[in-house]
Amino acid sequence: MKKIHLLILLLLTANISFAKIWLPSILSDNMVLQQNSNATIWGWTTSTAETIEVIGSWNGEVVKVKAYQGVWSVTLPTIKAGGPYTVTIKGHEEIVLSNVLLGEVWLCSGQSNMQWTPENGLLNAEEEIKKANYPNIRFFQVPQTKSITPQDDLVGDWTECKPETMRKFSSVAYFYGKELYQALNVPIGLINSSWGGTPVEPWIKKELIENDEELKKAAKKLKRYEWWPGLPGSAYNGMIHPITKFNIAGVIWYQGESNRDNAFSYYKSFPLLIEFWRKEWGKEFPFYFTQIAPFNYKSKTNIEAAVVRDAQLYTMLTLPKTGMAVTNDIGNLKNIHPINKQEVSKRLALWALVKTYGVKDLMFSGPVYKSMEIKKNKIVLHFDYAENGLVKKEKELREFFIAGEDQKFYPAIAKIKNNTVVVSSKKVKKPVAVRFAFSDTALPNLYNMSGLPASAFRTDDWKIDINND
Fold it and tell me: Which key words tag this protein in UniProt (predicted)?
């Protein structure tokens, strides 16, 4: 009988001695945790009922939890920005995460214009790479991984920003982080989870797409390749779900070109993405995105991308805590990947600095259409973010079109009058609608006094034919 008791004791001792603790990859040395928040620290253990202790060196407080079926998670309060610190995880073994900073953490996602690195093409690339020495800016690169089921972890680690890491990281993410760092003087963590060519549907949970007939039908138009996440949910499962416990300040997003084939569903799918991600993180974080730039897709209708831009504008106007960087003046009709990523990031950062961080005396948006009034044979357009007046670059305003009740649009004469634009055409005696920059290749030139460009818009809700067959 004593031998049996001794054997049981030895087995229990062995189980305790060899118990292992491990963490998701997003929790590693060099990471940035969101300041002044509740950071989730989580992981797994081979022990079925192990007590885990987590200590942040910024205050030395111990947070304890008992693992359940090998899984554990704690809430670790963080203080104001600073560091470096350590995070220690203790069980039957000990893990120490070093060089940890507290600061502002942003998720950066989308398709190729977010993915694009300085090596892929960037204005003044070599000069920018040489200057990229910012040890308090940290990068985490999510590998391009598709999955048919939500994953718990992914491969990756946090690295400091230096020339050799910056040159292979997202240009838009880097310059966005740099703008925030220089303005706020706090550590910045940037998580890049992007994949070139992806439409919005793979970034949304599959069930949300399939439970909506319109979105389900639109998703069938998506291109499918064996190596590429063409199915709804496939990018979310592999590249977003594993990090949804990691507290973030917000998201920046650059995507939309690949939704031209189902552009009208983007009015629904893009807001759905934002609302879904916020629900997954359990917080209404700010979501700032880039309106896609002009490009010659050589389509027959030349309007699919314009509809996507309109859906992006609609999303900004209808969802709280969203903002849009307009890029219709820095695109390239021959290059779907414009190289002036610095200005894209600056315009995204303006939204964050003003709306998220409360920086004063900055204009953060170009003119946005607000309302119109018909005055005889002219239409007067009113704008938000134009209180100090409007300006044009070059001699005449471009890309304004006007229509009567026959819904035929004609090029219009457009004149700035203080903070309004007056539009007319000799071919339209009784105007009822205006469209501005409403084509794939439109290159408008209307700005506010801060030099930020006006978004494309339309005053009508008429049916648009985007059949490109």
Answer: Hydrolase
Residue type, 427: K
Question: What's the rounded Cα separation, in Å, for the pair 347 and 344?
Answer: 5
Residue 198's nearest CA partner among 173, 225, 170 is 225
Q: Name, in order, each residue with C-beta under 8 angstroms of 69's C-beta and a sequence gap of 6 or more.
A: 48
Q: Which residues of 53-81 are buried (b: 16+ CB within 10 A; e: fewer)?
A: ebbbebeeeeeebebeeeebebebebeeb
pLDDT tens across the length of the chain (469 residues): 444 443 333 334 444 456 799 999 999 999 999 999 999 999 999 988 899 999 999 999 999 999 999 999 999 999 999 999 999 999 999 999 999 999 999 999 999 999 999 999 999 999 999 999 999 999 999 999 999 999 999 999 999 999 999 999 999 999 999 999 999 999 999 999 999 999 999 999 999 999 999 999 999 888 778 788 989 999 999 999 999 999 999 999 999 999 999 999 999 999 999 999 999 999 999 999 999 999 999 999 999 999 999 999 999 999 999 999 999 999 999 999 999 999 999 999 999 999 999 999 999 999 999 999 999 999 999 999 999 999 999 999 999 999 999 999 999 999 999 999 999 999 999 999 999 999 999 999 999 999 999 999 999 999 998 864 3
Residues in the chain: 469
CB 387 within 8 A of CB 431: no
Say how far residue 422 (Cα) sits from the centre of its chain: 35
Residue 315 has phi, psi (to 5 degrees) of -65, -45
State the Cα–Cα distance between residues 3 and 178, nearest whole angstrom: 66
With left for phi above 0 and alpha for psi between -120 and 50, is residue 60 left, alpha or beta?
Answer: left
Backbone torsion region of residue 459, taken as left when φ is above 0, otherwise alpha when ψ lies between -120 and 50, otherwise beta: alpha
Contact 364, 323 (CB under 8 A): yes
